[in-house]
Amino acid sequence: MSDSFQPVVTSQTHKVDVAGYPVELPLVAIRPDLAISLMMVIDLGVRFGAHCGEKLKEKLAPLQPDIVVGAATLGIPVAIEVTRALGLDRYVILQKSPKVHLGDALEQKITSITSKGEQRLLLDDRAVPLLKGRRVVVVDDVVASGSSLKGSVDLVRKAGGEVVGIGVILTEARDWLETLGADAGLVKGLAHIPQFSNENRRWAARPETML
After folding, report:
1. Measured between alpha carbons, how far is 145 from 95 in angstroms, rounded to an integer?
2. Which run of H or of E encompasses 187?
3. What is the tally of structural domains in the chain?
4. Which of 72, 137, 163, 193 has the most crowded Cβ, counting Cβ within 10 A?
5. Which domain holds residue 162?
6. What's the confidence (pLDDT) of residue 136?
7. What's the pTM value of the predicted model, to 2 decimals?
8. Which run of H or of E encompasses 204?
9. Across 102-126, average pLDDT
């Protein structure tokens, strides 16, 4: 995201069917020539979260995961609902800012399409035993650039976990395919959204090859 351009919520929205649950997302201009559909999963209610957890469970359960990993902040409710739906108890949250309880945390640098500058993902070293030698699914709300998910996957592997799947509510455009590389094949999503170009003062979906 440009350092000089401030994101603007536009008057347009984009409708998407999330595995049978329709939602209408506001378009937010993050550059003069680029807008995205903004999904704030924490604002869409308990039923939506439970629905997504159940639908992602259907895709991830055949992978026989032992534990779920999600990144703060919007990945937290996804991790909780997927863990609940899978009938598991423990999950691991990767933090994006230092916390008092984080000692010698494992660290991975990331970037995000919706955040300025470089960020860090931090894994509490006391959570490493929960991941080492375990079958792990990494979950998040949206994959766009793919940097956050790649950082999450890399951290799990640093901790000795085996990443057997990646679950997201939405895949956005196609940049994430290149970022994730071979790991893109692990991604299981519930719906896909495009990005939008400014055409004659209206935002129109950018053409892309279907996934």
Report:
1. 19
2. strand 187-193
3. 1
4. 137
5. 44-192
6. 98
7. 0.91
8. strand 202-205
9. 75
Q: What is the CATH number of the domain that holds 59?
A: 3.40.50.2020
Q: What is the DSSP string of 108-166?
A: EEE--TTS-S-EEEEE-GGGHHHHTT-EEEEEEEEESSSHHHHHHHHHHHHTT-EEEEE
Separation of alpha carbons 83 and 34, rounded Å: 35
**167, β-bridge pairs:** 139, 188
Q: How many residues does the chain have?
A: 211
Residue in 94, 102, 195 with CA at minimum distance from that of residue 140: 94
Measured distance CA(138)–CA(141) in Å, rounded = 11
Among candidate residues 211, 207, 206, the one with its CA nearest the CA of residue 35: 206
- Residue 15 lies inside a defined structural domain of this protein: no
101 within a domain of the structure (yes/no):
yes
Which residue do the tokens 């592997």 mark? 157
162-172: strand order across its sheet:
91-94, 67-71, 135-143, 162-172, 187-193
Residue 96 has pLDDT above 60, yes or no: yes
Question: At CB < 8 A and 24+ separation, what contacts does 114-120 make?
Answer: 114/1, 114/7, 114/30, 114/36, 114/38, 114/144, 115/1, 116/1, 116/3, 120/96
Quick check: is 59 in a domain?
A: yes
CA 98 – CA 96 distance, rounded (Å): 7
